[in-house]
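for the recovery benchmark. tokens below, seq after
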């Protein structure tokens, strides 16, 4: 394959993994106890960039992944304790903000400069969006969720830099 075909294949793979994450149901996860009254079992955080979107996916099982809409990403976070803990922290952080989210059945990519949080529950998906800049400056009540999601990215990067992600 030439470079452009590889890029197209990587993009399709990332988009497919993203879609798969949104379609995981609680019944697909074995031996787990969802969190809180809503029965939270996963969180997906997406950040809009000029070149596409970055997607952080974490489940109550400890599995965590990061995908890029233009291709690429990092999977298998459950195999690394630091990523697993960061992913679980993101899912647990959603307990504190779930009441600020609205039930939804759609999951569009965020616009540039925006972040969307999707929380997967036994009763369906809940979502909220905010300007990424406001989240980063702690000007939004969803900021703790944003910081927890970024800890997952950081944990993956540190593993990659240490050469353990291979």
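predicted aa per position
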């Amino acid at each position: 394959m030439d470079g452009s075909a590889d890029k197209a294949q990587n993009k399709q793979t990332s988009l497919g993994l993203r879609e798969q994450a949104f379609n995981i149901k609680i019944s697909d996860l074995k031996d787990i106890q969802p969190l809180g009254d809503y029965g939270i079992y996963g969180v997906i955080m997406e950040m809009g960039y000029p070149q596409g979107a970055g997607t952080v996916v974490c489940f109550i099982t400890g599995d965590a992944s990061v995908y890029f809409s233009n291709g690429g990403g990092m999977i298998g976070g459950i195999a690394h304790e630091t990523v697993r803990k960061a992913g679980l922290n993101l899912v647990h952080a959603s307990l504190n903000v779930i009441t600020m989210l609205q039930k939804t059945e759609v999951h569009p990519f965020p616009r540039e400069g925006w972040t969307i949080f999707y929380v997967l529950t036994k009763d369906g998906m809940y979502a909220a969006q905010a300007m990424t800049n406001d989240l980063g400056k702690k000007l939004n009540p969803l900021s703790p969720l944003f910081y927890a999601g970024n800890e997952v990215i950081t944990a993956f990067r540190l593993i990659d830099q240490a050469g353990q992600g291979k």
